Each structure stands twice: as C-alpha cells, then as structure tokens.
Amino acid sequence: MAIQKGDQIPDGTLTEFVEVETEGCSLGPNAFKVADLVKGKKIAVFAVPGAFTPTCSAKHVPSYLEHYDALKAAGIDEIWCVAVNDAFVMGAWGRDQKVNGRIRMMADGSGLWTKQLGLELDLTERGLGVRSQRYSMVIDNGVVTQLNLEQGGGYEVSDAETMLKQL
User: Fold this and answer.
1) pTM across the whole model
2) Which residues form the Thioredoxin domain (predicted)?
3) What is the extent of the structural domain holding 111?
4) Mean pLDDT computed over every residue of the chain
5) In a domain, 108, yes or no
6) Which of 37, 80, 94, 141 could form a disulfide with 99 if both were Cys (CB 3.0 to 4.6 A apart)?
7) Torsion on CA atoms 159, 135, 143, 87, rounded to nearest 10
8) How confident is the model at residue 56 (pLDDT cuts 50, 70, 90)?
9) Known catalytic residue at 56
10) Is there a domain that residue 1 lies in?
11) Domain-located, residue 103
12) What strands, in cross-sheet order, belong to the sheet with 28-33?
C-alpha cells in the first residue's frame, strides 16, 4: 500500500554526500534518520527514478532550483531530491546540477525507504533494477500534506510549479 496524504512518513535512513565537513557531519556520505530530519520542519521532497537521467536532469532538478526562493517564501524549510542511487552518485549529480546546498541530494541506496513508502518502480527489464517512482510530496512535521504521483513515467504533477500552487 502506497503512502497517502495525511499519513505519517515512515522512518528510515537516507544518505547524503557532505561536501564541506562541519561539526557533526564528516566529509563524504553521512547517514540521516528521516524521523530526525522532518521533526518540526516543512520539507518539499521530489523523487526521481535515477540521477543523471534525461528528464530528471533537464527538468526536475532545474524546476526546484528555479523556484527555490518562492518555495522558501511559501514556508518550505528544506528541499530534498531522493533517488535510489548511492550517496557518491547523488553528490556528483548535485555538483553537476550546481545545487550548492539549495537541494539536499538524498540517496536511498538500496531503495529501502522508497519500498516503505510503497513507491518503488521495477525497471529491471530496462537494466535499472528497482528504483523510485517519480513524485513530489510535502512533509510537515512528519505528516504527508501533499502527494503528487506521476503516472506512467510522465512529468506533469511533480514539478516545483505544481507544488507552489498547492502551498
């Protein structure tokens, strides 16, 4: 059963490649508990089938970068891009897309959190294994308040423009 609007987000672990070492975060991949990250925050999440894929690189990430200031003004504390890739790939993709800390590039390396959400996508036949469906959601203090799930590989409702209209 896939997660629904109004549901509590499941806890899990996401990994982020940290570019600059700080107190509490070492350089390289750092694991974070989702429950800790969402506590008291409003998070815009968008998930993609894979880093460096055409639609994700040409449209999805750029849409959230373009509307970063407007999303922040609408009350979003953080923006996450989630993909079933490892933290090294997500870090490299973030550098390639010049996210510069505006979007947290969160790796769900084995797809465990994505499976807990019920939003996995089996692309084994295409040589990609099990990935994430393309979607966006707003998590407000651990509760899903918006969920925009794409149908059939489309890119119509998970963009930043749609999310802004909902906020």
Assistant:
1) 0.92
2) 3-167
3) 13-19+27-166
4) 91
5) yes
6) 94
7) -100
8) low
9) yes
10) no
11) yes
12) 28-33, 13-18, 104-107, 78-83, 42-48, 135-140, 143-149
